[in-house]
Specification:
By secondary structure, this protein is of the alpha+beta class. The protein is built from eleven helices and ten strands. The mean pLDDT is 97.
């Protein structure tokens, strides 16, 4: 059993850390305040290879392993979770799904520009009445011979207005239930595709979250991923990988808050000494460091299992469940350690606390992760 990172891993980790500190940190508070999408920074991430990290170089990707992805996600998320969720969706849900299950034609047309960062993608599963119950798809894709006619509404869509390619789950055969769902590749400029309002969110406010409406959108048959009725299975498979990405995001948010709290505890003095030397604060830091280390090991374990072709469903769910809880707990304590300053935007920790909450909700709530984990336990 080895716990050392390779030279390549350390190099990728440093590259992500440098980018986060030099390019994302300046202006991150202003982007949060203005709900401004980090367009220039996302473009740079694409040029650096962060948007298609695990994709084969022949399709424009970096050809790296999932551990590299976890390390980069942590560093980016320490500074700007709004940027890292773009990275997570593009890598885990869109690129991985297309590379694993797409046709060669789909990979040439869509995966190459997505993996190289020329464009970004979106994953469209959630609906007004289909969140945790993803089988209850009301969006329909009626078979018209050579194309599908797509109608319905999707919401909470990351990269909603900035994506160029959308993977949309829709019901083709109602009688077949979840086995009648298809995943269709939809392009932004198709007639009948309308981007709805931008959501005014608690956290990840720089992330571009919208509702989407499809009104008689014609989607060619060649834009279906997999066989007829494969859509729900496709969604579950890519979401399993997505959990590793969001777990890494939660880990990064926690790590970022911890590092700020540790730094502050060495600078701020009360009663004649640094507050970190007071046991009340020292014990908080000890708990934070221990739980973050545990969360990191869970993330890397899930990534290692994925890289080695093992079933990582349970490991990914455990990583997301635990890391998101650690993110919420750590950020709250970081605000507490900062005292009144923690309530002020310029110290960053209040933003990290707001950003942490969504990691317990999207790409499968904590309750859904417990269902995944408990089913696997009982199956054993």
């Amino acid at each position: 059993m080895k716990f050392e990172l390779t030279e390549e891993h350390l190099m990728i980790q440093k590259a992500a850390r440098d980018f986060a500190q030099n390019e994302l940190l300046p202006g991150v508070i202003e982007r949060d305040n203005e709900q401004r999408f980090p367009a220039e920074q996302i473009k740079q991430m694409g040029e650096l290879g962060f948007l298609g990290m695990m994709v084969d170089p022949k399709y424009g990707g970096s050809g790296l392993d999932t551990i590299s992805y976890v390390l980069a996600m942590e560093e980016i998320s320490k500074v700007d979770a709004s940027a890292s969720v773009v990275m997570s969706v593009n890598n885990s849900l869109v690129c991985w799904g297309l590379e694993k299950f797409g046709t060669e034609e789909q990979k040439e047309k869509y995966l190459k520009p997505l993996a190289s960062g020329q464009i970004i993608g979106a994953f469209c599963l959630s609906e007004p009445e289909a969140g945790s119950d993803a089988t209850s798809q009301k969006t329909t894709a009626i078979d018209k011979g050579d194309h599908y006619l797509l109608n319905g509404t999707k919401n909470w869509i990351t990269n909603g207005s900035t994506a160029s390619v959308y993977l949309v789950m829709a019901q083709t055969d109602v009688e077949a239930g979840h086995k009648g769902i298809n995943c269709l590749i939809v392009e932004k400029d198709q007639e009948g595709f309308v981007v709805g309002k931008k959501e005014d969110k608690l956290g990840i406010r720089g992330s571009d979250t919208h509702s989407l409406m499809f009104q008689d959108v014609k989607v060619p048959k060649e834009n279906r991923i997999g066989e007829e009725g494969f859509g729900f299975k496709f969604a579950m498979k890519v979401l399993s990988g997505g959990r590793v990405g969001i777990a890494s995001q939660a880990l990064g948010i926690a790590s970022g808050a911890y590092e700020l709290a540790l730094k502050y505890s060495k600078e701020r003095k009360t009663f004649g000494k640094e507050i970190g030397k007071h046991q009340a604060i020292a014990f908080k830091l000890a708990d934070m460091a221990t739980e973050i280390d545990a969360a990191r090991l869970l993330c890397i374990k899930a990534a290692w299992m994925k890289d080695n072709g093992q079933n990582f469903d349970r490991a990914g769910a455990q990583a997301k469940l635990f890391a998101s809880s650690v993110a919420m707990k750590t950020t709250v304590e970081a605000v507490q350690i900062h005292g009144g300053y923690g309530f002020v935007k310029e110290y960053h920790v209040e933003r990290l606390m707001r950003d942490a909450k969504i990691t317990q909700i999207y790409e499968g709530t904590s309750e859904i992760q417990k269902i995944v984990i408990s089913r696997d336990i009982l199956r054993d």
